[in-house]
Amino acid sequence: MDGAAVNTLRLADLTPGKSAVVTAISGAGRVASRLMEMGFVPGTIVEVLRRAPFGGPVQYRVHGCSVSMRSAEASCVSVETDSLQNRTARRASSQLELAAG
């Protein structure tokens, strides 16, 4: 990646305003299936929109949709960040917002 720092972490560890690419889904079969049904599949760009106070749900943007989930479920999603992917995610997000309205 031409010197770009790659950082692999859990989706639950990302802070609002950050984006990443899903690399893997773990957890019990039912949880993993539900996450994939919601659009959290490897290769997908995810952006953290906001965190509810006191450990409440976190709101994410995935495939142009807003999705909220608890930290326990978000911990089952492995993501990878680097500066190039973050620029790409912001650009794609902006294009989706322009197209939506």
Please provide a brief summary of the model.
The protein is of the alpha+beta class. It has helices spanning 29-37, 71-74, 83-100; strands at residues 7-10, 19-25, 45-51, 58-62, 65-69, 77-81.
User: What is the assigned CATH homologous superfamily?
Assistant: Ferrous iron transport protein A (FeoA)
Instruction: Give the strand tally.
Output: 6
User: How many domains, in number, for the residues?
Assistant: 1
Q: CATH first level: which class?
A: Mainly Beta
Query: How would you characterize the largest beta sheet?
Result: 6 strands, antiparallel
How would you describe the shape?
Answer: globular
Rg on CA atoms, Å: 13 Å
Helix content: 25-40%
Characteristic key phrases:
6 strands; SH3 type barrels; alpha+beta; 3 helices; 6-stranded antiparallel sheet; 101 residues; globular
